[in-house]
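Why do we care about 3D structure at all? Because function follows from shape, and shape follows, mostly, from sequence. That is the central idea of this module. The next example makes it concrete: a single protein chain, its amino acid sequence, and then its structure expressed as tokens.
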Amino acid sequence: MYPIERVEALNAEVTRMTVRAPEIARKIRPGQFVMLRIDERGERIPLTMNDCDPEAGTVTIVFQAVGATTMRLARMRAGDALLDFAGPLGNPTELAGARRACVIGGGLGTAIAYPQAKWLHEHGCEVDVITGFRTKDLIILEDEINACSARQIIMTDDGSNGNKGVVTAPLQQRIDEGADYDLVLAVGPVIMMKFVAATTKPFGIKTLVSMNPLMIDGTGMCGGCRVKVGDEYLHACVDGPDFDGHLVDFDDAMRRGVMYRSFEGAAREAAAGRVAGEGRDCGGSAVAGAVGAGADERKGA
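And the structure:
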């Protein structure tokens, strides 16, 4: 069992959770993820590391309650425990050697982009961080990112924080101003990463994108997390999750990403009904029907 040491709401939709997992904390690196399972009836879901403390033996994850498992996970508290917490899985992000970098996070992708920005900053790289959110109330990790970046630019769709627009606008502006990036890293919605890669490609800037396709086992056996990169299909769990943004077929990724949307919607409705009923049924039967549902949360955080 893996004890939960801390649970914190970052906003109305997003939760940060610290889990005691000493062996993983000693080995995990930015970009890698864990596969967790709440109990013996639960499904496995991947969540990318947000932070770790090797000395304390803890790993921090950030997630949004969007599916059957993450809805249950968001209701857990310090002192509870997870049955499975396996990792580190995937490959660490290739960050060594970067002198000037721009790390871009879209929504919840900001939580995954943060450890990369932190690592780069700690290793002498000048880091710009650009993040995008729907509205100012959903902004997360602003203080943490300020501490590890030369400049932070936060965009909102509705302009409620004073900066209305998409993340590619300040990226293009910084490039035009001569930022001379040798690395751009994007983590977020596929459509956002597509346009980030399109922005950097004319300048030949190395661009990595963190792909988040449907994932079942995290070991390459199921084949669900295939990503078309150049002329071949690779597996996000074992070949990624980071890939060359100038080679990824984003349109193919978006088509694959909506294949199970109807199932995801049904899973959310079923999970919401079961959560409401757990006050009357405290046994395992209240959650048994949620097993295997919530495919959207398998896409990672």
